[in-house]
Amino acid sequence: MTFSTPTRRQLLAMIGKVAGSAAMYQAMTSMGFAAESEYRDGVSLQGPRGGKKVLILGAGIAGMCAAYELRKAGYEVKILEYQNRHGGRVMTIRGGDRYTDLAGDVIDCDFESDGYLNPGPWRLPIHHYAVFDYCRELNIPIEPFVMKNDKAYLHSQHAFGGKPQRVGHVEKDIRGNVSELLAKAVNQGALDEAVSLEDREKLLEGLRDWGVLDKDLRYRSTEALGEYRGWDVLPGGGLMPEKEPSTPMDLSPLLQSGLWNQILNFNSYEHESPMFEPVGGMDGIADGFHRQVGSVIQYGARVTRIQQGDDGVTVSYEDGGRGGELRQESADWCICTIPLSVLAQLQVDCSDKLRKAIGAVPYASAFKVALEFRRRFWEEDDWIAGGISYTDLPIVQIAYPSHGFFTKGPAVIQAAYDTYTAGRNYTYTWSSLSNEERIAAALHYGRQIHPQYDTEFMSGVSWAWHRVPWTLGCYGQWTEDLRRAHYETLCEIDNRLVLAGEHCSHIPAWIEGALLSALDTVSRLDQRENA
Amino acid sequence: MTFSTPTRRQLLAMIGKVAGSAAMYQAMTSMGFAAESEYRDGVSLQGPRGGKKVLILGAGIAGMCAAYELRKAGYEVKILEYQNRHGGRVMTIRGGDRYTDLAGDVIDCDFESDGYLNPGPWRLPIHHYAVFDYCRELNIPIEPFVMKNDKAYLHSQHAFGGKPQRVGHVEKDIRGNVSELLAKAVNQGALDEAVSLEDREKLLEGLRDWGVLDKDLRYRSTEALGEYRGWDVLPGGGLMPEKEPSTPMDLSPLLQSGLWNQILNFNSYEHESPMFEPVGGMDGIADGFHRQVGSVIQYGARVTRIQQGDDGVTVSYEDGGRGGELRQESADWCICTIPLSVLAQLQVDCSDKLRKAIGAVPYASAFKVALEFRRRFWEEDDWIAGGISYTDLPIVQIAYPSHGFFTKGPAVIQAAYDTYTAGRNYTYTWSSLSNEERIAAALHYGRQIHPQYDTEFMSGVSWAWHRVPWTLGCYGQWTEDLRRAHYETLCEIDNRLVLAGEHCSHIPAWIEGALLSALDTVSRLDQRENA
């Protein structure tokens, strides 16, 4: 690749033209965002005609977001929340926290450091624009979440003698071997029909550089490979030993290892780099909304019935603050964010088809285990600072903290995590274990990747969403058939009642789904109010 | 890929075995670090036999590191530093700073935010273990530096109508097109000799998943491609518009665009993800050492001559604190970290071959420009939070800050940066410009990628290392021939004098090179002392 370099005189001449020239294009349209969403710049509500009250069920992200926008537009808002905390599944478990699950198992978190577990959402992709718009608006401090770490491990019990391989090595060796094979095919003329002569030259040049092939277009250990893949002996200072490039893995064991499959975890649009996290825990996002709408939340309110007529709704609930006394709250509209798994068990006045939709969507299972260790051995010994190692063991993945890098003292890693995935049903097995058993299992499997577990372990905490009384599962587990049959019904306004939450979105399980659902819901409610 | 899932009973049985089983392998040896360096766990000096003094020239990273280790081992240490600041090239320019370059050009930094420019080193790869060992030891706070951002741009004036393309799109489209071509070649039997039947099946399966090919093994717009490459219309909440997958670029325009070449910037071992930076600016590392050895630094000391005999060294210097009065300092040993570009002009008693080596290594040119804008338009409009956009314009790259994400108000980007690269000599052109001209040029070119420059610009600052009086260039520009002829001589102890710094390492320009050079130098000096 050659560049044309302006002389000083040419450069100065060009600079002179800056002021006069028009912008080549407008950023927003050129980047292709304009079409993406009418909500790109947030909702703009007309507000109610006269005093109107909206009752919101659930102080999770969808409920608080809806309350925030409706209040800004002039609606009276009240939130009823079953728990004595805000945020719903957007929560963070820290040392000193205690939870009791459905089975009566008491989960104590004994972490001594400021490490934590986000049992629900734990990372934010940049295209979740509603999340970041609110982080900006609500002054929620954000830091990078390291999703892909080239030093993290990929591990299979049945490959490379059970020895973990570096993400960067696997990825670069796939790329190198693929490049070598394709270059060979091109040079044999196998693709003469598919690729023009001019493109073939560029393709060979590209493969050589991208795959770091040698002059014979083979993927071999060379000094250039060291600069690309790393060293067996690193370049040093002064008269330290001579550097030695590393040696790539051959294609055949790589193909048979199954590790190529693990690389795909980094491939999705949702996992593109960089991802982000709130500083100090995911509940920072819930806290941001709570600072705005905390005053309208009534806690300890266990909804038992939703009644509605043409003019409004009446919600019955047991008031935990008054010993469970049955009370009622009325409003012009009701936005219900209660998970379908719970809502299906309540008495709800609504159309038959909405009732069917509410009962139709199963909730996915998911679990997590976090472990605290005496020191950051993954950083000190393994040079893994942040990121995720994947394994075919039932812990599925080990995620290292994206904060407190290179500090001394204890730290917490997310030592096991999976959601329901077709073809493996780990999550049910893990959900059947007690907290203590889940911690023991995470230790048992994790030490095969990090033997330091044996000496550095301090304490652990775990979470299984199917054992959580207020959600009975992790998130709405849609299929294409279910969407066709029930999604529109679930989202439509049913007289004076409308549902919102991640289950009413095409982005299940993510905070963005809850936010966009809330924004869409309040927009339609506001339009109906002003129709 | 299938997993065998243990039952609850099997899992509990396995957990029971944890305590009794030995660790499968030791982490350190299995990870292949053991061979990498004898310095992996830091130096261990014997210390002097009786009182011994070491005079160090230069309070940069190498000088301060050497001073720190020698003092810990019991040596008396003094540092002479030309400037009135510590850190050398490891520096950070902030609002309120003022510098005067060789040409008399006064460089004022008027930044209003806490944004900054690191004119020298600005990012740390994780395998620079000495850097991170010292960050841990000296309590230097570290945060991720976003090197690769899939949303950042690749840009060529001559491709795609000058419209920037997303890094993720280019990378995934290369991978998809390469996978399609290789799958085609495999299915045509073109690689039957190179790849066994068993491997061919795995290869096709791998290419289909890795390249996200459709059922006919073609790289086309499908829903799966949306999940992988992104959407023209993003999945939404409630009844928002239906999602639409994006459309990939065809192979031919991609090959001809030159953007594949720009992807290589993310390929090197030094740029693997994640990289890191000190919180608040790269001078945080210099400050960490300064907290340890600040008391032994004499500032404003302009060394003019280094004399040595069999028993020690005497260094003459003009004392800036006393109006330039000529003074002398004697010691048993001298470690000189003065850049060769400056040292070559001083009177130095040493062997002829060392004098030749000092004069033989040219210094690379490099420049940077930083611009402050009224708002983070790259985050708000372009969804680029951190990372680097590359272009074939003479600014070469635009780096977005890896801190203060999603905050309101002004922020600083590194708007142009290049070091000398064979085939393009931008750095000399840029070095010939004044500070004001460099800022104007960065604006002129950068607005072709970010038209928001026109309305959001506040102020700028620039740096050209060949115009800096105390280095006369950026770093030692070694070639293989120069290494063969002079490197060992340059690093060897010459009677009572020994050199250190990035120029005495195989990692030029990086802090790690300066540190490993210092560690190697003090080790050999200590061995000589105890021989």
UniProtKB/TrEMBL annotation, chains A, B:
Keyword DNA-binding: no
Pathway(s) per entry: Plant hormone metabolism; auxin biosynthesis
Superkingdom of this protein's organism: Bacteria
Transmembrane segments: none
Single biological process term from Gene Ontology: auxin biosynthetic process
GO molecular function, a single term: L-amino-acid oxidase activity
Reactions accelerated catalytically: L-tryptophan + O2 = indole-3-acetamide + CO2 + H2O
Signal peptide positions on this chain: none
Keyword terms of this UniProt record: Auxin biosynthesis
Family: Belongs to the tryptophan 2-monooxygenase family.
Protein name per its UniProtKB record: Tryptophan 2-monooxygenase
Source species: Paracoccus jeotgali
Taxonomic lineage: Bacteria, Pseudomonadati, Pseudomonadota, Alphaproteobacteria, Rhodobacterales
